[in-house]
Amino acid sequence: MEQLVSMGFSSDLAAEALTATGGDSIQKATDWILSHRSSPQSTATLQPKLDRFLRLHPKALAPAMGDDSSKRPNPKTQIHVAADDSNKRHKLSSSSHRQHQPLSERMRPRTLDDVVGQDHLLSPSSLLRSAVESNRLPSIVFWGPPGTGKTSIAKSLINSSKDPSLYRFVSLSAVTSGVKDVRDAVESAKRLNLEGRKRTVLFMDEVHRFNKSQQDTFLPVIEDGSILFIGATTENPSFHLITPLLSRCRVLTLNPLKPNHVETLLRRAVDDSERGLPNSVEVDDSVIEFLANNCDGDARVALNALEISATMATTRAGTDAVVSIDDAKEALQCKHLAYDKAGEQHYNLISALHKSMRGGDANAAIYWLARMLEGGEEPLYIARRLIRFASEDIGLADPSALTQAVACYQASHFLGMPECNVILAQCTAYLALAPKSIAVYRAIGAAQKVVKDSVGQNEGVPLHLRNAPTKLMKELGYGKEYIYPPSDPSSAAGQTYLPPSLLHHKFLEWPEGASGDFQDQEHRL
């Protein structure tokens, strides 16, 4: 703010400009002030102060271009005065800034009609369309994978409204902003509300990065209408956002883009010479198809890979460059996999693996295993889940399954990735094809329920089952009348082992003398 004030702007105007532009760039804030607040009279007053500031701070408005100051443009070329006497105001040149933006940012949709792949949210009868047409936007949380249009839809809502001038869009990121930035934006919004000029739409990207106390700051201002809140998150709101915030917002889910949707966006970038690729670059259809099928529904990944491919082709061939499939493969390096080892996708995939094995589908189980390994999952985590599965879902139907799972864990620990992949696959296939029984799983669950439900009334161990290591304990009857089964099997058969209140209670439903059908197991394998 100090730099803006030293240019001659008031502290209130400087604070409003920083809030409106996100507070991460003096250049953006200056551009906003000169575009929205300067008058012909104030321009003449500000010019000497701007010139003096640029002489004292030649790097203040220059874009970051590494440490080599010789590569930085002259700051004075960044600001020019319009020659037309009827409109003498300063303008920041945005062409240089736009040139350095990633292709995914330059091609961002401007209106809701430009958004593709989220028809369930943008149909004519949808909540968002109705809100736009009535100029009554609700507070919203957009939840979806990266590159599916959360930020684009948020910005397009304002541009698509009947009167965009009624709204002021303030964009913050929970990665770089804190509570102070939110408070500054809210104070500015309240001033505008009192003046009856504009309603402020506060967009908070990656809102799940805020902790619970930070999220609490949104509650009163959403409640009293000081701001319209729009949050964007890639994480499940049920786990990462506080319940009071969710109760004040509508959660709208975005789906991963399908290949045909990504193709549409890539062709736009190729055909749009102003915002997209230069006319001198030609892109084969095979390149677009390859990127669309290998970006895992993430438009940002596809567009940025296309831009890198075009740069490689231009560097190699100069003008009239043709982007080949090899350029695209080199730019993408490998298929992009959406996977988060601590988030919802992690639990979705391990659930799919577990249920595929339970259903006896070894092919599906090995596929989900491969998805987890390629996504970077810790192999020992998978091995631990296989051990659990061996007892929970197979149990006494094939007792050797537990031995197989433990051996799998030990072998995976010895070898590590990538060599342990086949060990995990072998154990996964064995467990999927093994006979299943949840008798033990149900038995321990039923026993634990009985223990919990009895609260403080759990009976003591019957005297004949108690240990009697001392003379006093023997005198008290510990271990008295206990029959040792190996010495007297016939008499021991009538001996009871449960507390009196649970006599004849059955937890394990298992036929006497039954065991796993190992011949059937060998046949299936």
Automatic annotation (TrEMBL):
<feature type="compositionally biased region" description="Basic residues">
    <location>
        <begin position="88"/>
        <end position="100"/>
    </location>
</feature>
<feature type="region of interest" description="Disordered">
    <location>
        <begin position="83"/>
        <end position="110"/>
    </location>
</feature>
<comment type="similarity">
    <text>Belongs to the AAA ATPase family. RarA/MGS1/WRNIP1 subfamily.</text>
</comment>
<dbReference type="InterPro" id="IPR051314">
    <property type="entry name" value="AAA_ATPase_RarA/MGS1/WRNIP1"/>
</dbReference>
<feature type="domain" description="UBA">
    <location>
        <begin position="1"/>
        <end position="36"/>
    </location>
</feature>
<dbReference type="GO" id="GO:0005524">
    <property type="term" value="F:ATP binding"/>
</dbReference>
<dbReference type="GO" id="GO:0005634">
    <property type="term" value="C:nucleus"/>
</dbReference>
<dbReference type="Pfam" id="PF16193">
    <property type="entry name" value="AAA_assoc_2"/>
</dbReference>
<dbReference type="InterPro" id="IPR021886">
    <property type="entry name" value="MgsA_C"/>
</dbReference>
<dbReference type="GO" id="GO:0017116">
    <property type="term" value="F:single-stranded DNA helicase activity"/>
</dbReference>
<dbReference type="GO" id="GO:0003677">
    <property type="term" value="F:DNA binding"/>
</dbReference>
<keyword id="KW-0235">DNA replication</keyword>
<dbReference type="Pfam" id="PF22562">
    <property type="entry name" value="UBA_7"/>
</dbReference>
<dbReference type="GO" id="GO:0008047">
    <property type="term" value="F:enzyme activator activity"/>
</dbReference>
<dbReference type="InterPro" id="IPR027417">
    <property type="entry name" value="P-loop_NTPase"/>
</dbReference>
<dbReference type="Pfam" id="PF00004">
    <property type="entry name" value="AAA"/>
</dbReference>
<keyword id="KW-0067">ATP-binding</keyword>
<dbReference type="GO" id="GO:0006261">
    <property type="term" value="P:DNA-templated DNA replication"/>
</dbReference>
<dbReference type="GO" id="GO:0016887">
    <property type="term" value="F:ATP hydrolysis activity"/>
</dbReference>
<dbReference type="InterPro" id="IPR009060">
    <property type="entry name" value="UBA-like_sf"/>
</dbReference>
<keyword id="KW-0547">Nucleotide-binding</keyword>
<protein>
    <submittedName>
        <fullName>AAA-type ATPase family protein</fullName>
    </submittedName>
</protein>
<dbReference type="GO" id="GO:0000731">
    <property type="term" value="P:DNA synthesis involved in DNA repair"/>
</dbReference>
<dbReference type="InterPro" id="IPR003959">
    <property type="entry name" value="ATPase_AAA_core"/>
</dbReference>
<dbReference type="InterPro" id="IPR015940">
    <property type="entry name" value="UBA"/>
</dbReference>
<dbReference type="InterPro" id="IPR008921">
    <property type="entry name" value="DNA_pol3_clamp-load_cplx_C"/>
</dbReference>
<dbReference type="InterPro" id="IPR032423">
    <property type="entry name" value="AAA_assoc_2"/>
</dbReference>
<dbReference type="InterPro" id="IPR003593">
    <property type="entry name" value="AAA+_ATPase"/>
</dbReference>
<dbReference type="Pfam" id="PF12002">
    <property type="entry name" value="MgsA_C"/>
</dbReference>
